[in-house]
Amino acid sequence: MRLLKVVFLFLLLLLLNPDSLLAAADDNVSTDNSGVHWIGLPVFYSTPETDVALGGTLMGFHKSNPNDPQGKTDVFQGVLIGTQKEQKIFSLNLKKYFLDDRYLMIVGAGYIDFPSEFFGIGPVAEENLEEDYTLIQNAVIGSFLWRLAPNFYLGPLFRYSRFGIEDRAQGEQLAQGNIDGWDGATVAGGGLSLVWDTRDDEFMPRNGSELNIQAMDYRRDWGSDDNFSQLAITHKIFQPVLENNTLAWMSFLSLSQGTVPFEMMPALGGDTIMRGYYSGRYRDRDYAALQGEYRYKISTRFSGVLFAGVGEVAPEIDEFTADHVKAAAGFGFRFLLVPEQKIKLRLDIGMSESGTYSYVNFMEA
């Protein structure tokens, strides 16, 4: 039933004439790259974690170098969303280049009130241990990076987040108080961020790669409840196939040391990598995943994808084992909703041992 509902939502969005929805925005979009191009859009999406979500987004795009059409793009986005599961999501994000792209600032802030499900910690968390709880989060994260070489940026990174846990089920895992972060947590830390980006396009790449490394240290002296550190590495590779198709690879590794609240543990699943698993179905201190996606053109605005991935969580890096590897695969379709800004509407069907999950969202996964 949920799959039919998600497919219906996707078809409904296609039936809505995107040209009329965006007419007001298009009137303000000019071929002059020196200005900021603003677009306001309704937001409709569906994931297993949220069910149907409705809201709106305001996006601003600006070429950092108006004389270079292939240059970097500054992006601002504000999002306000409510979901069928009574979740509330608000975020503001800014990606800004300075002085001929020599400096890059990335800042994000957000608030969520998010009824969710907790399955426990570890690679063999039992589904029958599922329990409901509500996560309240306020967070701000930012970095200021210097260009040390073409397409290579490095600089400081900071994060501050406050997690609140409400509506815990009586007598279940979180209520027993044996899990780090069971009653909420505050984390404050700093570190380094490295970005190496050779993609030929930020939104619809067909060639190149992107490497993002973040090393963070959280300390009581800085305001955290506990001391811990985390290293996260994301690597994406894009390879053109035939005239219009693309093979995309994504690998992700997250490693932790110290006393890590469960809210900060990496979670397997979601609508990007390892589609086909509920986000948080498995979570632990360490997480590794690899995903491949074949993107093929159907028509000017329509395209399709085939994807497959493997992933695993573990308490320590030397405890990764083939016995606990999870696999997911699926297919999807894309519709180029706003050609000028390369904004896509996507529908994905992900399958795993946990079942079949469907996703409607924007942009590529």
Describe this structure in words.
By secondary structure, the chain is mostly beta strands. Helices cover 8% and strands 57% of the residues. The chain is built from 4 helices and 18 strands. A hairpin with a 2-residue loop joins β6 and β7 (152-166). Mean pLDDT is 88; it is low at 17-31.
Keywords:
single chain, 365 residues, mainly beta, 16-stranded antiparallel beta sheet, two-stranded antiparallel ribbon, 4 helices, globular
The major beta sheet can be summarized as:
16 strands, antiparallel
**What's the tally of helices?**
4
In which order are the strands of the major sheet placed?
A: 1-2-3-4-5-6-7-8-9-10-11-14-15-16-17-18
**Helical percent range?**
under 10%
What class would the helix/strand composition place it in?
mainly beta
Which segments are poorly predicted (pLDDT under 50) over 5 or more consecutive residues?
17-31
Task: Report how far the terminal alpha carbons are from each other.
Answer: 24 Å
Count of DSSP strands: 18
Oligomer: single chain
Mean pLDDT equals 88
Q: What is the molecular shape?
A: globular
- Element pattern in H and E: HHHEEEEEEEHEEEEEEEEEEE
Rg measurement, Å: 21 Å
Beta-strand residue percentage: over 45%
